[in-house]
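dumping this here before i forget
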Amino acid sequence: MKIACIGTGAMGGAIMRAVCRKYNAGDITVTDKNTETGKKFAEETGAVFAGSNEEAIKGADYIFIAVKPQFLKDVFDEIKDKITGKQVVISMAAGVKIEKLESFAPKARFIRMMPNVCAQIGEAMTAVTSGASVTAEEFEEAKKILSAAGKVEAVPEKLMDCVTAVSGSGPAFVFMFIEALADAAVRCGMPRSQAYTYAAQTVKGSAALVLETKNHPAVLKDSVCSPAGTTIEGVSALESNGLRNAVIQAVTAAYEKSVNLGK
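structure:
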């Protein structure tokens, strides 16, 4: 199986690094508008660097497009005549629906995906949805490829903007919370390096507890809040300062931006 990837920046690079670890890197061809970035990626992973996007997709079974939405049309203008009906094109562009992708390259058969930055360590949450012309076998193969970077789940296309806001943008929100938790620890006297470890491990362990026990987060939260204890005091402060509303507003803002990117 041959895989091509146009774009080896933060997200495309993270996904392809994971794929290179699971598959034969020599069967993966990459290109990037920044030649230095693309060559460095190839040197570090063993992937093949192509001199152009057209060269990169030759003979590929799956073509990953990892460029920002505003650059999609330019990329497809360059490669659309070289795409065969046998290839499956996987777009990472936020907000851009399959119908619009098909207008850029009528012969292409598309899958949309939305990963997140946690692909760097094989812990991504990736959503995928496919166009009608992609076979069930091809869709399952694409999911298998992406599983190299973490958990993969099929969703209807109508949920992709929500996925973008929750799991695509979500890591940034979590990083901000970890930073705030660590700052609070420093304020209370803990050395900063130790504070980041405590904050990050606490978030990691809490997330694992939700996933493994499948208990509602509110149930787990209540289990930590003993009567007249320290935790309920802190929870009250978070509620008073609008944590819940701030998170909802952040996700909503990211969702609306994703919707607008697709227009």
